[in-house]
Each structure stands twice: as structure tokens, then as C-alpha cells.
Amino acid sequence: MIPRYSRPDMAAIWEPEARYRIWFEIEAHATDALAELGVVPKSAAEALWAWWATNPTINVAAIDAIEAVTKHDVIAFLTWVAEQVGAHSGHDWARFMHQGMTSSDVLDTTLSVQLARASDILLADIDRLLEVLERRAKEHKLTPTIGRSHGIHAEPVTFGLKLAQAHAEFRRNRARLAMAREDIATAAISGAVGTFANVDPRVEAHVADKLGLAIEPVSTQVIPRDRHAMYFATLGVIASSIERLATEVRHLQRTEVLEAEEYFSPGQKGSSAMPHKRNPVLTENLTGLARMVRGYVTPALENVALWHERDISHSSVERYIGPDATITLDFALARLTGVVDKLLVYPERMQKNLDRMGGLVHSQRVLLALTQAGVSREDAYRLVQRNAMKVWESDGALSLQELLKADPEVTAALSTAEIDEKFDLGYHYRHVDTIFDRVFAA
């Protein structure tokens, strides 16, 4: 992942040294369990931890140099560790590492640890976003604005309701991610083709416990990739929710709308050519980042079908998508939180836009009132639409309320007072408290 869209804590999970440290912990914990079972000398396990206690720096370059010869990353790592442990202890205790294990035991269990740790950061990201969404939603709970369908004025809503909807969506996303984290956090130390022929299942249980993982019920040398597919699909859904809210902000910032906009900091420049520009660059960026995260979903789905017990067609894919998807989503969630936190909201412009179409947004109330007064739905629709189209074609210069009061077919069913009552904006906000209680009460 490029540094521009990386945050340190998430990026650190995927650094080579961090990966090798997890590898060592897996190997050392497994050796502990093997020693307890009498398969290897206890001195071997003690020698591994004694070297580790010296807080060694993992020499990534040295391991890479060995791999250049062996063409195998796990063997290169084991070779380097054996050299270090031997030099520290004066004995070849490291030969007892990796007894009965296969490379996938190390690689897959490590990936589980990394994805679980990444999930913890992402869950914290969502928690911060939820806090900001709740605060801004309550701030604008009764700020009138226009709801749009197909991009066209529909009926009145409040800006707080828009943000409450986003809060509910990201709360669902949090629940999805928590489930995906639980599903992905499994260990497999089952040896070649997953039969435990050369490594006792108790070794797997011990390693899993030490690393905070569950055991994989049936591994075929690899952890089944349906788990990973579900995980990355969940990240893709979260990315889509990010884009949904980002797209809303982008539309609201359009010059013709300008009901809200991204914070524009002192000294910020919007265009290299046009000094007047204030562009929605953050939310446009979020749209692009969301596309990238979703792009990792399909390869994860295609990784599910491996040949027989295993192959490594999934390996190269996961070396990309593991770091890139989590790092990108972490950055995007943090950026979205900042956008919402500092979002500039313009209630007066919202009211102006709400009023600009001559009261058309109240058409449904008049339609329903006519039907309640005994007019057929077809005739009621015709009467309201006939007057509404005059307002539409006048670009809001005419008033639907006044046209209806001048239409004898309408006034034959509704009094002037009854028509006026149907244009009460507050009517649309009667149940805002109910919706907010549903979203925030818990």
C-alpha cells in the first residue's frame, strides 16, 4: 500500500519484521507443546525463548538473502533463527523447531493473527465514526432539508435523519465486522494435508490458546478460504457504506445545492487554475478508496476453490489483499470520520432549497386528503398533478398551495383551511423522535 493512504498502526501489522515475529511465536509455542508431550527436549523450547528474551532485531535482509537461495520463505526464516539460537545457546537446539509441521501451519495461522489484529483497529475506527455521526445527527435532529429520490425533490426530511441513517448502517457494519473477525481468527497446526499424522492436535490447541485464536475444526493443510472470502466481502460492504455517505456529501456540496460541504482549511487551495474552487476532494478520494477495497473481494472469492487439499494459488493474492484492503479501509474510515466531524452545514440553504419549488413537496398530503374527502384516487392524482405541473414548469415561481385554492374541483372537496393545513412542514417531523429512539436508544 502506498504511504499516502496508510496509517502507522495498521501498516505496522503487515511489516515483514512483524510477520516474522508472529512466525517465531508460533514455532516457539509449538515447541513448548511438543516438549510437554515429550516429543522434543524441554531444553529446545527453553533455548528458543532464551534467545527471544534478548529482544533480538529480526534481520529481514538476512532472511531475504537466504530465501534468494532456498526459494522458500519459511525455510529461510527457520534457517536464520537456527543460526541465531545456535550462536546464543552454543547448541543446535533449533533443529527441534517445526517438528511435524508444514509451512501452511505457520503462514495461515499468522494471517489469522494479522487479520484479527487489523479487525481490532477497524472496529475502533468504526466506533469513532459512530460517535461523530451520533453527535452530528443529534445536532441537526430537526434541521429541515429536502429528501430526494432519483435526485429530484421528494418530501421533507431533516439533516439529522440523514446522519442517523448512516449511523444505523455503520452499526450494522460493526456487527458484521465483529462476526468476520471471529470467523477469521482460527489456527491450524495440523501438518501435511491436515491429518495431524506428525503433530499432535494438542499442539494446535496450545498455539491457538497462546495467540488468542480458535482451532480450525478441519484444515486440509490450509485454513479453508471461505473464511477469508467472508472477511474481505465484509470489508467490501463497509467500503460501500463509506462511499454511500461520501456520495451524499459530494452531491450536497454541488454549487447548485450547497447544503453542506467539506471543511476548507486556511491556506487550502481548491484548483491550480481557478482560485474560487472549493472541491469535495476528501469525499471524492473516499469514493476511489472504496472502489479499491471492493476490488479485493472478487480475488478472495476466487481463492476458495483450491486443488484437492491445497495449492498456493491463493498465496500471491493474499500477500496483496491482506495488507492493502485493511490499510485502505483503515485510512478511509479515519478520513470519513474527519469529514463528518468538521462538515460545514448550511441550514438556511437547506430551507431555501426546500422552498424553491413552490410547495411541490407537499403534494402527497393533498392527494391523500382528497381521497379521504371522497375523491377517487385517479381523480385526486389528476387534480394535484395538473396544478403541480404548472408549478414545475414555472420553476417554482408559482405556488402549489395558491393554485389548489384557486381550482374549483379541489375546493369542492377541501376548504381553504384544509388545503393550508396540508402545507405544514412540521407535520413531516412528527416521528423524528421515534426514529432517533430506534437508532440511538440502545
Can you walk me through this structure?
With 442 residues, this protein is mainly alpha-helical. Helices cover 63% and strands 5% of the residues. It contains 19 helices and 6 strands. Helix 8 (201-211) links the parallel strand 3 (186-187) and strand 4 (214-215). The two termini are 37 Å apart. The mean pLDDT is 96.
Distance between the termini: 37 Å
Count of DSSP H/I helices: 19
Which oligomerization state do the chains in this entry correspond to?
single chain
Q: Main beta sheet: strand number and arrangement?
A: 2 strands, antiparallel
The amount of helix comes to 55-70%
Mean pLDDT: 96
Element pattern in H and E: HHHHHHEEHEHEHEHHHEHHHHHHH
Strand order of the largest sheet: 1-2
Net shape: elongated
- Structural class comes to mainly alpha
Q: Bin the strand percentage.
A: under 5%
Record field, number of beta strands: 6
- Low-pLDDT parts are none
Radius of gyration: 31 Å
Top keywords for this entry?
mainly alpha
Task: Chart the SSEs and their pairings.
Blueprint: H1 8-13, H2 16-36, H3 42-52, H4 60-70, H5 73-89, H6 103-139, E1 144-149, E2 152-158, H7 159-184, E3 186-187, H8 201-211, E4 214-215, H9 226-252, E5 260-261, H10 281-295, H11 297-302, H12 313-342, E6 344-345, H13 347-355, H14 363-372, H15 377-393, H16 400-405, H17 408-411, H18 416-421, H19 432-440
Helix pairs in contact: 2-3, 2-6, 2-8, 3-5, 4-5, 6-7, 6-12, 7-9, 7-19, 9-10, 9-12, 10-12, 14-15
